[in-house]
Amino acid sequence: MRRTTPAPPVRIVHLGLGAFCRSHTAWYTHHAADSSDWGIAAYAGRTRSRDLTARLARQNGLYSIVERGPVRDRVEVIGSIVRAHSGGDVPRLVADLSAAATAIITLTITETGYRLRADDTPDWDDPSVVADAEILRGVARGTVTTSDARPVTALGRLLLGLDARRRAGSGPVAVVSCDNLSDNGGRLRRGLSALAAGCLPETAAWIAEHAAFVSSSVDRITPRLAADEAAALAAEYADEAVVVTEPFRDWILCGRFPAGRPAWEAAQARFVADIEPWEARKLWLLNGAHTLLACLGLVRGHDTVARAVADPVCRDAVNRLWNEAERHLPDGLDVPAYRRALLERFENPRIEHPLAQIAIDTLTKLRLRVVPVAERELAAGREAAGCATAIAAWVVAARRGALPQDASSESVRRAAGAPDPVLSMLTLLSAELAKRRRPFQSRIAAAQARIDLADP
Ligand SMILES: NC(=O)c1ccc[n+]([C@@H]2O[C@H](COP(=O)([O-])OP(=O)(O)OC[C@H]3O[C@@H](n4cnc5c(N)ncnc54)[C@H](O)[C@@H]3O)[C@@H](O)[C@H]2O)c1
Ligand SMILES: O=P(O)(O)OC[C@@H](O)[C@@H](O)[C@H](O)[C@H](O)CO
Predict the structure, then answer these.
(1) Could you tell me which of 160, 272, 331, 375 has the fewest CB atoms within 10 Å of its CB?
(2) Are residues 352 and 288 in the same domain?
(3) How many domains does the structure of the chain reveal?
(4) Tens digits of per-residue pLDDT, 178-231?
(5) Which pLDDT belongs to residue 280?
(6) SS3 of 107, please?
């Protein structure tokens, strides 16, 4: 694929090049009113994404988005990604992060990619975090040069880049998290600042003054393609990096851009003063239902969201979870219309969204998507039966070995095999819920028995 107009200059650095940033961040930037001024240098996170960077690099960053509606496809070529790199190319990443032209850093590194604890401090039990901190301390002491440093975590690499930016005097920058986490910008600021304080104190002070952290609620269902579908699309569109997504899209942002930003509002991005209600609506309703459907759907023999949501048992469980979540959302969000639209989006028969893909990192996802609703319902003196069903579905899926392999598989497997699996798994999920809520545990156990009995 060849460009017919000059590539825009790189002013955005993206961490976590995958399906989603191509369907969302890059789409919005391509459709910004001043798109010719804003190019993206995108870096993958894990080694297994190396193949995608190579394919995109061969196509000068160009790729097609197939917007897959219930009846037909709409295809367009996106040109905002100018360069694609492996995340292991740390010197290149550091050069981009420290360039004066770079105004924005965006992230889609997955929820677990932040490697933070519940209190937003770095997870010091993670050997990669410990190893990266040691490298960064070496940089601060001068025993490791920036060009020799090879941190492996996303935050370690970001911090190394911001340290170089401080030293280069390249000015302020906005850091925008686009991951499915509540208060994602705040969490990133706290996590990165804590890591910096322990390793690069001068850069911690620089971050406090020169880095603006933007929170954003991102919404566009974009499944990772199966290999055979990717191959068929590559042949059809003569494009090795096609991404398939739904027609719906939404991006709500909250925060400052001290070095400027694309005019994303031309593509209907919204800038708000308080993002929390919007984040909660999206995370609890869309993502909460996705995680419930993933666990319950897999247990009931389904493979995709569309097939699971067509099952009355799954659909009823989704509606009960939504009734509980809705009680804790403020007025003015038009929740009934959002719920109706969500069901239509889930039902889209032409989007093959594998439940097994959504079920990756279910432990982290339940903490973000269901536990906050359960806590609020229980604090209000209600039963949180819908949340109990979602957690019970996870317990059953784990006990039957229906969940995919992920970073917490081993601890989940141990808890699922314990003498009291509900208590052990609830303890893993939320020590608070497990400690204080005996009746809630009984409700999960009852829901677990019902799911087991209804085995189709
Ligand atoms: N796909 C969607 O529908 C969607 C919608 C909204 C938000 N998101 C957010 O975007 C994230 C990525 O989704 P995707 O569809 O692009 O996934 P993907 O698997 O296609 O790509 C994920 C990217 O993150 C990198 N990554 C993965 N684990 C990492 C880690 N531990 N540390 C650093 N980098 C890591 C990968 O190398 C890859 O570059 C999601 O986890 C979610 O938070 C996705
Ligand atoms: O992308 P993840 O793994 O955080 O979550 C899986 C899905 O719930 C998610 O990707 C949704 O499709 C998306 O958040 C829709 O905007």
Answers:
(1) 331
(2) yes
(3) 2
(4) 999 999 999 999 999 999 999 999 999 999 999 999 999 999 999 999 999 999
(5) 98
(6) strand
The residue type of 325 is A
- 32/171 same-domain check: yes
The per-residue pLDDT for 46 is 76
| Digit-coded pLDDT (tens) for 58-84 | 999 999 999 999 999 999 999 999 999
Ligand 2 pocket check: which of 22, 358, 361, 366 to mutate, most ligand atoms within 8 Å of Cβ? 358
What b/e sequence results for 280-311 when a residue is b if at least 16 CB atoms lie within 10 Å of its CB, and e otherwise?
A: bbbbbbbbbbbbbbbbbbbbbebebbbbbbeb
334 and 202 within one domain: no
Cα gap 456→410, rounded to integer Å: 28
Of 229, 255, 273, which one is at a domain's C-terminal end?
273
- Look at ligand 2, atom 11, and give the residue with the nearest C-alpha: 221
CATH number of residue 210's parent domain: 3.40.50.720
Q: Does the model's pTM come out above 0.90?
A: yes
Question: Tens of pLDDT along 371-401?
Answer: 999 999 999 999 999 999 999 999 999 999 9
- CB-based pocket (< 6 A), ligand 2: 111, 180, 219-221, 286-287, 290, 358
Ligand 1 atom closest to Cα of residue 22: 16
Looking at the fold, whether 267 and 358 belong to one and the same domain comes out as no
Please report, for residues 106, 155, 239, the alpha-carbon distance to residue 123 in angstroms, rounded to integers and kept in the order given: 22, 11, 39
Burial group, residue 12, by CB count within 10 angstroms (0-12, 13-18, 19+):
buried
Residue 68 in contact with residue 246, Cβ under 8 Å?
yes
Mutational test site, ligand 2, from 220, 249, 284, 286, max ligand atoms within 8 Å of CB: 286
Does residue 5 fall inside a structural domain? no
Domain check: are 346 and 217 in the same one? Answer: no
Termini Cα distance of the chain: 48
Nearest Cα to 433, choosing from 364, 361, 384, 393? 384
Last residue in a domain, options 218, 239, 273: 273
387: domain range? 277-453
Length of the chain equals: 456
- Of the candidates 22, 11, 217, 193, the residue with the CA atom closest to the CA atom of residue 104: 11
ipTM of this complex > 0.90? yes
> Does any domain span residue 71?
yes
Q: Please check whether residues 325 and 405 belong to one and the same domain.
A: yes
